[in-house]
Design a protein that fits this description.
homodimer, BirA Bifunctional Protein, domain 2, aminoacyl-trna synthetase (chains A, B), 9-stranded mixed beta sheet, nucleotide-binding (chains A, B), histidine-tRNA ligase activity (chains A, B), 568 residues, alpha+beta
């Protein structure tokens, strides 16, 4: 149990005692009610912190107690309004991916267990296995990269090169922390370029794609200010031009490996030390250093040398400075990496993204399969960003399971890198001993985090979940068959239409349905209209636009008039 | 092992012996090669029949033998061309769903095991469980209906009524039979109307939606002919009007229960007898009767009485005849069902779908949760249909795992019904003892079958997987940075563009890329064009439309000219 859980439980116990005492003391009802409300909030917080369910339907269901009415730990439903926002987000992303020639493939949600084995380092323990029900041993996919590599290895004759995107769910049996948006089931949204290509060209295009996606999503239509680097004394404060929503941190595995060697990290400690460096985003340098020295047995002098390098970040200027560094010059791996970075900056300028890119030596992603450039897009620590992030998730009151998602930290909103050897691990080599390998580079957009930002940027009640354009309304006698017939006429003309499933509905509930579902227009009929062969059309969002009862239109002109108003 | 597997293995053994003998006899190489080719085909067939993998990359991978390079049994990948067809299919379906006011929700791919328990009768054994890794017991969802009901029960205060659609993967640990398109992972595509509404109105609209979807998908733009009923002597031969792709079989659970009672089926045998009737689509009446009498212990006279009813199908005429049937009249359940059917036919006429609907007493779906109308859309047994279904799956040669999907049977392409008690099973009742139940009716489109029909209706090589509009080509010196800069210009103007990731590509490979990816236009540059400040634009699909080298356009007018040609 974490401290905050323990503290929550403590508070709940104490508040419970207090309420009981208030009741004994016959305190005023509103005083007690207020305390009970606080208690409920605390319990909701605890439920979210521990990933446990809230009681369904406000605890009313007596009979349902036999079921635990919830989704599994670390998973959640998305309701109709949330899905409208998510689908718009996915469509925007797909639009950018397709602009760059992207095609999509689909792979199963689970893979043979052995396909996933040995790909994720320490994180392999987070893989979900399926029960062995007398068949193959299978696991839910952990990301979309390994399945893609497996696909390429299986289809290498057809796909020597491909730009593929994939939007799909992945699974990690992590301790869920909804406060951090960390779930056990979540979407990934990847674009990868596979194939042996001109060095650094696809790498730069991938970063350009990430910039385009984040700009199109308008995640950060803010003023960009300063980012304070999380370790003491070093402030990262490059101003990024107006409208730039994010900056892409770039590093290169070879530079990092070279740097570690130069600093005196023994070969066998490079991976563990690299994973310690990866924590620089969350921990102060002192703690990272402590992990290196105390836990991983690194010579303190080597740790200090690392400290001097990994505080470095900047643009081409830094790159040029490092190219002059005598110690790095003596290291082939570091020099190869720096030369690649030079090439990268050249293409970044052609792609007009150089001002969004910061060369950052602290960046070291945890996954084992990266072999070249690695990058990460992060929201900058601006006042505007923090203001949006501090807002409550809309619809929260209605969806208690979100109650504690109100705190989305600044952090990674896209990440990726080059993995040149993963396909080869699956594909092996051909008869002539030539490897069937296919080099790859890709990016994954952090759509769950982006989603929670987008939700905060709009009013929950203004999200239109349906796309209905016209509601068919009866005044007076119900006219069910007549309303249905009009709906048929509209559907057959490509107009999205609904009507109330009731033989004799009153007028008000029909108007209410239009309001609730944000339906722009209505077709209104009554006995008189039917007799005259007309209908009335009414603007339901701007109710003063038409006469109170709507504008009369001959039935034969109804479809044309609706289409005109809808801009079809 | 099935007969056909055994027979395949037998053939393989015999052919192997034959080939060895031919080699011993020093037969001509082409004779041996021919036999080897046949042997390979047999092995591929066997692999598909048993769901076993084919060797990857044509068996070339020596080192890869340590991995079994395949997807799990009963699952498959979809490549870029297949996905282009699938996404277009899903978009078409969503379009219809949204026309009827549908909204979408998302639920996790796995649910708590107890949520799924007791919902699927005998088929519960097909549920995939996740391994118990020290958490909750979870299972992969078996359909989208039970998760939807669970969602409604959890959110009943917000969603007393909703029209929701959901397109997502479901999982069944069935014996995969790719020949029948039966997979362990497949998509379902559901539309459901929840809420207490006017009787039979949502039911009829759901059927209207199914008809609209199947028409929009153009699954059956054929001449409709005769459907031969699978049991002897009875031919179902209602001609359905021109263009009608499918007929929707309708039955009503209450009619069926009433009919069974009238026929003398004891209460406790109604469910098992119902599931026997469900096999009428696959087995002749004699075998169904045998199952009823021998296995399920039904009185033979009762079985014969059932036989007389379940051969009945037709339109309103049949309905009216049954309403006069003295035995049915005496049965309250049957009469209630028949009266609902009367109402259904009334609304079906308003919805203009009555000619597509056949009242069919043999229809009995297997799932336990249906409580009212049940229906199933089936392809009719027409010459045209059979011609398309008999075609090979395109791209087959390239994707060996599809080798045996060449036989798609006539069968259900959409199905559904009313389930009024499922939500109540989760929701329980409120404090006043009033049930929190929400009645529902829905349809599930058989998208996997539809997909395999759509694939057969087009040429594999004509499927455009990407959406790229312009390819930027260099003549002569490579001009990589210049090509990249033009691509940036196009992307920033919303034009989908690619170029070759190569410093100095030859002209022909760039033209080949346009042909392969069906890219309509190219922008061509060389040293001369750069010097003059122009580009050349060329129609790549109709190469004679422009001069051989393309039409010269000033750089400043490039975007406008491309947009004009692309119809932006």
């Amino acid at each position: 149990m974490t401290d905050s859980e323990a503290s929550l439980k403590q508070q709940i116990t104490e508040l419970g005692d207090k309420i009981r005492q208030l009741k004994v003391d016959k305190a005023a009802k509103d005083v007690i009610d207020q305390e009970v409300a606080v208690l409920k909030q605390l319990k909701a917080k605890l439920a979210v912190a521990t990933g446990e369910p809230l009681p369904a339907s406000g605890g009313k269901s007596k009979k349902a107690a036999q079921f635990t009415l919830k989704t599994p730990k670390g998973t959640r439903d998305f309701n109709d309004k949330e899905m409208a926002v998510r689908e718009a987000m996915f469509d925007t992303i797909k639009g950018v991916f397709r602009k760059h020639g992207g095609v999509t493939i689909d792979t199963p949600v689970f893979e043979l267990k052995e396909i996933l084995s040995g790909k994720y380092g320490e994180d392999s323990k987070l893989i979900y296995d399926l029960e062995d029900q007398g068949g193959e041993k299978c696991s839910l996919r952990y990301d979309l990269t390994v399945p893609f590599s497996r696909f390429l290895a299986m289809n290498s004759t057809l796909y020597q090169n491909i730009k593929r995107y994939h939007i799909g769910k992945v699974y990690r049996r992590d301790q869920p922390a909804m406060t951090k948006g960390r779930m056990r089931e979540f979407y990934q949204c990847d674009f990868d370029i596979a194939g042996a290509h001109e060095p650094m060209v696809p790498d730069a295009e991938i970063v350009r794609i990430a910039v385009e996606v984040l700009t199109a999503l308008d995640v950060g239509d803010f003023i960009i200010k300063v980012r304070v680097w999380p370790f003491k004394g070093v402030v990262f404060c490059k101003l990024v031009a107006n409208h730039a929503c994010s900056r892409v941190k770039i590093n290169h595995r070879k530079v990092l490996d070279g740097m570690f060697a130069v600093c005196g990290v023994p070969e066998d400690k490079i991976r563990p030390i690299s994973s310690a460096v990866d924590k620089m985003d969350k921990l102060p340098w002192e703690e990272v250093r402590k992990e290196m020295v105390d836990e991983k047995g690194l010579d303190p002098a080597a740790a200090d040398r690392i400290g001097r390098y990994i505080c470095l970040s900047g643009g081409e200027d830094l790159l040029n400075r490092l190219l002059q560094d005598e110690q790095l010059k003596a290291n082939a791996s570091a020099m190869a990496g720096l030369q690649d970075m030079q090439l990268f900056f050249r293409y970044a300028k052609v792609f007009k993204i150089a001002d969004r890119v910061s060369f950052d030596l602290s960046l070291a992603r945890g996954l084992d399969y990266y072999t070249g450039v690695i990058y990460e897009a992060v929201l900058v620590d601006s006042e505007e960003n923090n203001k949006i992030l501090a807002q409550e998730m809309p619809g929260q009151a209605k969806a208690p399971q979100d109650a504690d998602e109100s705190q989305v930290r600044l952090g990674s909103i896209a990440a990726g890198g080059r993995y040149d050897e993963l396909v080869g691990m699956f594909a092996g080599s051909n008869r002539k001993g030539k490897s069937n390998n296919i080099p790859c580079v890709g990016v994954s957009v952090g759509v769950e985090r982006v989603f929670s930002i987008l939700m905060r940027k709009q009013k929950y009640e203004e999200i239109k979940a349906n796309q209905t354009e016209v509601y068919v309304i009866a005044v007076g006698d119900g006219l069910l068959d007549e309303r249905m017939a009009i709906a048929v006429e509209l559907w057959e003309n490509g107009i999205k239409a609904e009507y109330m499933f009731k033989a004799k509905p009153k007028l008000q509930p029909q108007f209410t349905a239009c309001d609730r579902d944000l339906i722009p227009l209505s077709v209104i009929i009554g006995k008189d209209e039917l007799a005259k062969g007309v209908v009335k059309i009414k603007d339901m969002q701007n109710k003063n636009a038409d006469e109170a009862g709507g504008v009369e239109v001959p039935y034969t002109e109804m479809v044309a008039e609706l289409k005109r108003r809808l801009g079809h």
